[in-house]
Structure formats: structure tokens, C-alpha cells
Design brief:
The chain is of the alpha+beta class. It is built from 3 helices and 4 strands. Strand 2 and strand 3 form a beta hairpin. The structure holds zinc ion.
């Protein structure tokens, strides 16, 4: 690679890094919503990493494949972040339900996962048999206001 090529490459990389930070910060690109900006920034950041990791003299199709792998990688990261935030919501709701159930005198057993969903749990009161159902975005509380043994 000659001097000009190396300079161009360094400039391109610098511009890409700057583009990523502009996308993340957002004030220059208000017409894109936050999620789109973050997705684009993730893809570009991964693209720079993956191109840097490429051995010299790889065929063009493998270079092109880094673009696809960057898109897939960014989407996996986004899914994982979304799952983590849903799980956080779910756990927060469980803690809230536990606190209010305890104030009402209920003695909740362990949270049991509802079959077929990883974000839905239910717990049963060991005293009255009432139960409460919690997911990351809903709560169905079928516990009585005061726990009473049936
Ligand atoms: Zn109870």
C-alpha cells in the first residue's frame, strides 16, 4: 500500500469513527429516530472492527461479507439489550408484587415460569392459594386484599 492509500485509509477510518459518534450523539441527525441512529452506529462500529480484523489479501466477497456480519452482529446486540431491559422490568414487577403481597399477609411461594414463555411467571400464596401472574409488561393480581386461609 502506498503512502496515499494509507493516508486515505486512515482518513476514512477517522471519518467513520466520527460518523459513529455523531450518530450516537444525535443532535446533527435529528431526522433519524434514536433507535435507527443507534443501530447504524452499532453496524458501523462493528464494520470498522471486522475490516480491521481481516487478513491482508482476502477475496472481495469476504470483505463484502463483513458488511452483512456487521448488520447481523448489531441486530443481535440490540436483541440482547432489549431482552436485558425486559428482564429488568419483569424482576422489578416481581419485587413490587412481593412487597404488596407481603403487606397483605400473603406468603408467596417461588416464582414459576409459565410454560411456553420466558417472560411470564406466576406465584401462589402458600396460605390462601391465591395467585399472581407477572410478565415484563403486565401484572394480573388475583390475591385478595387480605390473606385468609380457605
Ligand atoms: Zn394468601
Amino acid at each position: 500500500m502506498d503512502q496515499t492509500e494509507q493516508t486515505k485509509l486512515a482518513q476514512l477510518e477517522l471519518a467513520l469513527h466520527y460518523l459513529v459518534s455523531v450518530l450516537e450523539e444525535g443532535s446533527l441527525v435529528e431526522r433519524y429516530d434514536k433507535e435507527t441512529r443507534e443501530s447504524l452506529a452499532d453496524v458501523l462500529r462493528l464494520l470498522v472492527e471486522k475490516v480491521n480484523d481481516l487478513p491482508l489479501n482476502v477475496p472481495d466477497n469476504l470483505v463484502q461479507a463483513t458488511a452483512v456480519r456487521s448488520i447481523i452482529g448489531a441486530s443481535e446486540q440490540a436483541n440482547m439489550a432489549e431482552m436485558a431491559s425486559r428482564r429488568e422490568q419483569l424482576e422489578r414487577r416481581q419485587r413490587e408484587v412481593e412487597a404488596s403481597a407481603s403487606i397483605q399477609g400473603h406468603l408467596l411461594g417461588d416464582w414459576e415460569q409459565v410454560k411456553g414463555s420466558d417472560m411470564e411467571f406466576q406465584a401462589t400464596c402458600q396460605v390462601c392459594g391465591g395467585f399472581v401472574y407477572v410478565s415484563d409488561n403486565s401484572v394480573y393480581n388475583l390475591l385478595l386484599d387480605i390473606c385468609q386461609r380457605l
